[in-house]
Design a protein that fits this description.
The chain is about 35% helix and about 30% strand. By secondary structure, it is α/β, with parallel strands linked by helices. It has one domain: TIM Barrel. The N and C termini lie close together (about 10 Å).
Length: about 230
């Protein structure tokens, strides 16, 4: 189980289905939130720069401050579309860098950085229906899921993060059908995100074969404590 910190305008927020217009703010201090997660026993944190994801600024300094901790691994995501940005985050202490838009639109870049930093790069498969969403989920790409996974399967990636956008932030349960479909197409480790709200949901995602679940709103809304989730 990996807790998530999504940063928008320097604050820790959650979005509903990727809607930037109505964020729910949970903390004005993402670095402090990361410390709380680490103190509670988290071994890794998923940190997303939402401003960077849609190309409207960045929260690089905050992500670097979190990644610089020595008591928790960070997988950094959001607006990471250049080799320079990837290497900057890795140099700053990120254990893994998650590439989304560039993984879909720039396969040569993904292949280059994946081979250069073997096991340190993940690809984000953010799905709205049957199509990958890019640019902070503001645009959809006319590519089949299978096309992307066939392309990614031969790369030395750390894995794939699969997110159901329709379920994200809803607490309505995971999309196990979508997850099963993705798992059937790849041998890469797959992390799942979207709609998880209970211990039963976490168990169902694990039983489906996911390597990990990324948990956000359920933690912030008190549906589960981090200690309970980690115990699962």
């Amino acid at each position: 189980m990996i807790p998530a910190i999504d940063i928008l305008g320097g604050r820790c927020v959650r979005l509903l289905r990727g809607d930037y217009a109505h964020p729910t703010v949970y903390s004005d201090n993402p670095v402090e939130m990361a410390a709380r997660f680490a103190d509670a026993g988290a071994k890794r944190i998923h940190v997303v720069d939402l401003d960077g994801a849609r190309g409207a600024g960045d929260n690089r300094a905050l992500i670097q401050a979190i990644a610089g901790r020595d008591d928790v691994e960070v997988q950094a995501a959001g607006g990471i579309r250049t080799e320079e940005r990837i290497e900057g985050l890795l140099d700053a202490g990120a254990h893994v860098v998650v590439v989304g838009t560039a993984a879909v639109r720039e396969p040569e870049l993904l292949e280059r950085v994946a081979r250069k930093h073997s096991g340190r790069v993940m690809a984000a498969l953010d799905l709205r229906g049957d199509r990958p969403a890019v640019q902070g989920w503001t645009e959809s790409e006319p590519l089949e899921i299978e096309t992307l996974l066939v392309r990614w399967n031969h790369l030395p990636l750390a894995g794939v993060i699969c997110t159901s956008i329709e379920r994200d932030g809803t607490l309505q349960g995971p999309d196990l059908i979508m997850l099963a479909r993705v798992l059937a197409m790849t041998s890469l480790p797959v992390q799942y995100s979207g709609g998880v709200s209970s211990a039963g949901d976490i168990r169902a995602v694990a039983a489906a074969g996911a390597a990990a679940v990324v948990l956000g709103k359920a933690l912030y809304e008190g549906r589960l404590t981090l200690e309970e989730a980690l115990a699962l």
